[in-house]
Write a structure and sequence with these properties.
By secondary structure, the protein is α/β, with parallel strands linked by helices. Helix content is about 30%, strand content about 20%. Strand 4, helix 2 and strand 5 form a beta-alpha-beta unit. Helix 4 crosses helix 5.
Length: about 260
């Protein structure tokens, strides 16, 4: 018999909203969670904007949460980098996200100067051959800097269709350099462990809700967290034909109150 659920980890893009629109029923479901004082934390692999921008984006949709309720890869990575490396950091993240790394040394942009770590986020349209090659050259230097990935999401659903996310570029750098990335976002266990520590519950009594069968569901379930897959966002029917079996399937986040009561 499974342990009763006590807390929720909730993906954002594709679960709470899609593009600039809230998923129908989200406001009511979040209101239900708050009124019943169910502990929950929002997880996102988004590295294209800081938490403050996410809060503002959600506010425009009528979704009110605070920055402290959001765990992002840059926040997890900043803590890890402070503990594990010494020296300048090379960042391949959007300009808007640079502020999340303000406490680190990011001064060096000289491709011939060694760095302590190369951090790859959702660099999006900023990726060029030269940028990818610069990251590769840093990784190939004798001091062997750490390759840090802010999540390993393969793609995401934008207003104009599917777009490549962080994982394809990290995989390219791993293949070319022969190095293994340290992942500090979904689906890495360390990211989910950080979330559990922040929310104060065990894996067995926590449920992850997401639209990505790999990053959200498999990542969580590898750590013993039950995964609920929603049929919104990047969900595809073929997600249900693979080896990953979610603990539950919901039409959308709006169904959470009924699932919880059952």
């Amino acid at each position: 018999m499974s342990v009763p659920a006590r807390a929720l980890l909730i993906d954002m893009d594709g679960v709470l909203y899609q593009g600039e629109r809230a998923i129908p029923g989200v406001h009511e479901a979040l209101g239900w969670l708050n009124s019943h004082r169910i502990p929950h934390l929002f997880l996102t692999n988004t590295t294209s904007r800081p938490r403050s921008a996410l809060v503002e984006k959600l506010e425009h949709m009528g979704i009110r949460i605070t920055a402290d309720e959001i765990l992002t890869p840059p926040i997890a990575a900043t803590h890890w980098l402070k503990d594990q490396v010494a020296g300048p950091i090379a960042l391949f993240v959007p300009p808007a996200t640079l502020s999340e790394f303000a406490s680190l040394d990011t001064s060096s942009r000289d491709p011939t100067t060694p760095v302590a770590a190369v951090v790859i986020g959702d660099y999006g349209e900023h990726w060029t051959y030269d940028a990818l090659n610069q990251a590769f050259r840093w990784l190939m230097q004798d001091n062997k800097p750490a390759l840090v990935a802010l999540g390993m999401t393969r793609y995401w659903l934008a207003e104009d269709g599917l777009r490549l996310d962080t994982a394809p570029f990290v995989k390219a750098l791993e293949h070319a350099s022969g190095r293994q990335a340290i992942v500090l976002g979904k689906p890495a266990g360390a990211f989910f462990e950080t979330a559990l520590k922040q929310i104060g519950t065990s894996a067995a009594e926590t449920v992850m809700i997401g639209d990505d069968i790999h990053s959200d569901i498999d990542g969580a379930q590898q750590l013993g967290i039950r995964g609920l897959l929603v049929k919104t966002g990047k969900f595809r029917s073929e997600d249900l034909n693979g080896e990953i079996v979610p603990a539950g399937l919901l039409e959308s986040f709006a169904d959470i109150p009924d699932w919880w009561r059952s």
